[in-house]
Amino acid sequence: MKAGSLVAFAILALSACARGPSDHQVLVESCVANGETEVTCSCIADAMQKNLSKELFTKTADAVGREKKDMMSFVGELTVDEQMSFSAVLGDMFACSLTGEGGE
Predict the structure, then answer these.
(1) Model's pTM, two decimal places?
(2) Three-state DSSP class for residue 97
């Protein structure tokens, strides 16, 4: 029984590695590549993860982080409801940029 559990754990660990970086990390890396500090970028990604639906957060990470789409172009292609979700997080994102320390 223990061997079976070990095999199952190993498969789960390998599948997690195969997925690559998390959506959060992908967004942070994309933001840093655009000239922001890692602290600011992590704060922005935190705000997005907290305030956007999981689906929209993943969609953003895929488009902006993995496909390297321009954020403004990406947001312009979203539905009105998705754009409204983004508008709700703008204040937090702006605070991150102002302080460079998470707006706290």
Answers:
(1) 0.76
(2) helix
How deeply is 28 buried, as exposed, middle or buried, from its count of CB atoms within 10 A (0-12, 13-18, 19+)? buried
Q: Is 58 within 8 Å of 96 (Cβ atoms)?
A: no
> How far is 67 from 59, CA to CA, in rounded Å?
10
Contact 23, 58 (CB under 8 A): yes
The pLDDT tens digits for 19-54 are: 689 999 999 999 999 999 999 999 999 999 999 999
Q: Which percentage of the chain shows pLDDT scores above 70? A: 77
Contact 101, 43 (CB under 8 A): yes
Q: Which long-range contacts (CB under 8 A, 24 or more apart) does 41-44 make?
A: 42/102, 43/95, 43/96, 43/101, 43/102, 43/103, 44/93, 44/96, 44/97
